[in-house]
Amino acid sequence: MKRNRKAKILATLGPASSSSEVIENIFKEGCDVFRLNFSHGTVEIHRKNLESIRNLEKKYDHATCILADLQGPKLRVGEFEKKEEILKKGQKFILDTNSQPGNNQRVQFPHSEIYDHLTPNSILLINDGRVRLNVVEQKNDKLVTEVLNDGVISNNKGVNIPDVILPIDSLTNKDKADLQKALEMNVDWVALSFVQQAEDIYKLKKIIDGKALIMAKIEKPSAVKNIDEIIQAADGIMIARGDLGVEMPTERVPIVQKNIIKRCRYFGKPVVVATQMLESMISNLVPTRAEASDVANAIYDGTDAVMLSGESAIGDYPVESVSTMNSIIENVEKDKNNFNLEIENGQNIKKIDNTEAITNAAYSIANNAGAKAIITFSVSGKTTLRMARERAPVQIIGISPNIQTSRKLQIVWGVNSCFSTEDAENTTEMVKIACSVAKDNNLVQPDDNVIITAGVPFGNAGSTNLLRIAKIIADKDLT
User: Fold this and answer.
1) What are phi and psi of 402, to 5 degrees?
2) Are 159 and 75 in contact (CB under 8 A)?
3) Distances (CA, A) of 340 to 132, 302, 323, 335, 390
4) In the annotation, is 76 catalytic?
5) What is the rounded distance in angstroms from the CA atom of residue 316 to the CA atom of residue 333?
6) What is the fold of 75-160?
7) CB 105 within 8 A of CB 120
8) How confident is the model at residue 351 (pLDDT cuts 50, 70, 90)?
9) Catalytic residue among 12, 64, 145, 275
10) Which terminus of the chain, N or C, has fewer Cβ atoms within 10 Å?
11) Which of these ranges, 11-25, 269-283, 310-324, 410-424, has the smallest mean pLDDT?
12) DSSP letter string over 175-234?
């Protein structure tokens, strides 16, 4: 199914979008990647949604991509006798290990393993920062804090602790169970929440063992500080602006977003901008102008994808939210200034390999020879990823004999990911297959010039060393 844009759309499934009919409509309106949020819903619901998504793959002959998002180690307070309490600025408030219901003087905080790391002057943010606490005394079984602002605290509210790398595993027991179920369902990507350092990614990689790609969610200041190492360790990055905006000053989030997109581009890793992109569409048919500008700016910055959360999961207009985001992206990409996205390579003066040389040449030829598409043959997807990094002003058609590779590449900027079971034994067959796939998917027209990259010997991963220019013609010989 041809998309008339290069940036991709992720849509979160939830109660508003868990019927096969709505999932199909979301897909037709432009969803490239479906997000299964394991913070909510049952495994049975996620499995049912996954089956609906894979059925679309067969119906539309279009590889479908699924991302499983793990909940992560979310810190929470316990429950209160009255369900909620009003705290006053300047009063003392205690977080402790006592399981008794809380009051306006104390509440349970069942995470004693981090108490030693919360020294005096550590800041705790509760309920998305609506209540701010400053630690004044730290003991093994309790934290005495000073309330920094008037606010309401209630049952099971989340706690954010900025500027501290916490000694907690990025995978909880729930995450480990959810991960096993997700891998059994053959999801394509796994998103890891509350990443703090690259080591969190390496631990998850050992468990996944190549069965899925890993997306690191950046939602803590410690992750921002370690961003280069995390980008290199992960397969992709999600800028999760919700918790990130709680743990750092709001005015810093746009700057961090732009910098992370730039670093991901430099390292050639896909990046997703997420959270509150069209938030008002949860209950309104149209977004605010500020939200439209937010989506547009992410596209101008060169992000691979933008994501819908509550808009498609619990909102009143899940299909319309996807359609609206699709329309915003299409209009931005019509702006000729949108493709001024070349990477500054001054700091990257080094000897390049064959794949780098071929992709650089393909980009240059596409610019100078009026080619309509760059077609990449790639078993692993690495050549296609490398080509997408260039942000060429023509479409990229990624062809792979591996359906898993075709699915995973749907998240990548500019890539029309196609699965083909045909094997090429020589260059002539390679060109014929490339042109046939592009034509059958309505991605090119007769008389279009295309650039084809592949590797000899054919079918070997990581061996891209061949570039051809071909012309699409009307008859079935195709070359």
Assistant:
1) -110, 115
2) yes
3) 42, 9, 26, 10, 11
4) yes
5) 28
6) M1 Pyruvate Kinase; Domain 3 (2.40.33)
7) no
8) low
9) 275
10) N
11) 410-424
12) HHHHHHHHHHTT-SEEEETT--SHHHHHHHHHHHTTSSEEEEEE-SHHHHHTHHHHHHHS
Phi first, then psi, for residue 151 (nearest 5°) are: -175, 170
130 included as an active-site residue: no
Closest CA relative to residue 225, chosen from 257, 186, 197:
197
Q: Where are the beta strands (DSSP E) in 263-302?
A: 271-274
| 275 catalytically annotated | yes
Strands (E), 337-408: 373-377, 395-400
Query: Is the pLDDT assigned to residue 311 strictly greater than 80?
Result: yes
What topology does CATH give the domain 354-471?
Pyruvate Kinase; Chain: A, domain 1 (3.40.1380)
Domain coordinates in residue numbering, the chain: 8-72+170-334, 75-160, 354-471
Place of tokens 């000897």: 351
pLDDT digits (tens, 9 = 90+) for 123-156: 999 988 999 999 999 999 999 999 999 999 999 9
Sheet of 131-138: strands edge to edge?
75-76, 158-160, 123-126, 131-138, 142-147, 92-96, 106-108
Under a CB-based contact definition with an 8 Å cutoff, are residues 442 and 376 in contact?
Answer: no
Catalytic residue among 217, 220, 432, 439: 217
Token pair recorded at residue 150: 């008037």
Catalytic residue among 28, 48, 76, 262: 76
Please state, in angstroms and as integers, the Cα–Cα distance from residue 384 to each residue in 119, 215, 457, following that order: 48, 18, 18
The architecture in CATH of the region 8-72+170-334 reads: Alpha-Beta Barrel (3.20)
Q: How far is CA 210 from CA 103, 186, 457, 473, in A?
A: 48, 11, 24, 40
As beta bridge partners, residue 131 has 126
Q: Give the pLDDT of residue 299.
A: 96
Q: Which of 6, 35, 157, 439 is catalytic?
A: 35
Task: Give yes or no: 217 in active site.
Answer: yes
